[in-house]
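Our platform keeps sequence and structure together, in a single record for each protein. Such a record has a labelled line for the sequence and another for the backbone structure tokens. The tokens are whole numbers drawn from a learned vocabulary of local backbone shapes. The remainder of this section carries one protein's record, kept here as part of the documentation:
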Amino acid sequence: MAAKVQAGAGQVAAKKPAEEGVWPPPSISEEKVKAATGRGWMGWFIILNRASAEAMPHKEIAKLLHARGCPGWWSQMIAVEYERARGGRKKNERAGGTYAVNVTKVMPASLAKLFATATAEKTRKDWFPPGAFAETSKTKDKYWRGKFKTDRKLEFGFYAKGEGKAQIALEINGMPSAEDVEKERAAWKKAMTRLEALLGA
């Protein structure tokens, strides 16, 4: 059960609105964060507090996390939650006042198969939501980025999860309002269900 944040040695001061004043952050579970990064929420927040990260811009917080061994996508996610905990952002808000949402799913396939199926142009159309997509960069079995529709930016991360399993983690950036968040989340959850079906075909 989530508990109220209390300021203490190495902890984040409770500067956020009451409805967000819970610990750990509700967006992603403590177990998922620790499994993916080697530390839980508090472990990373203590590192950031000791580095006086509350005075840093978002990009510098993410760089600091990455330098301490946190994977790229997770560095962004933890940086955002840290800023929220310090009272600097609304839920799902990013730098510049736009909004973002994250969708993740563990798939019953190897990392190589998941990456190949998800990113290949011939299979992408079978699982993506409607909308024009333009690839901007790709690193085999690790990252995939591109522009989606007119104002969205997609960043996919791919992670091995043991024999025959791998995770796809998506961050959708650039949404102009909070109202867009749940629509995109629902659309991409359905998309990942279609991707899972492709992997099992």
In short: The first strand starts at residue 3 and ends at 4.
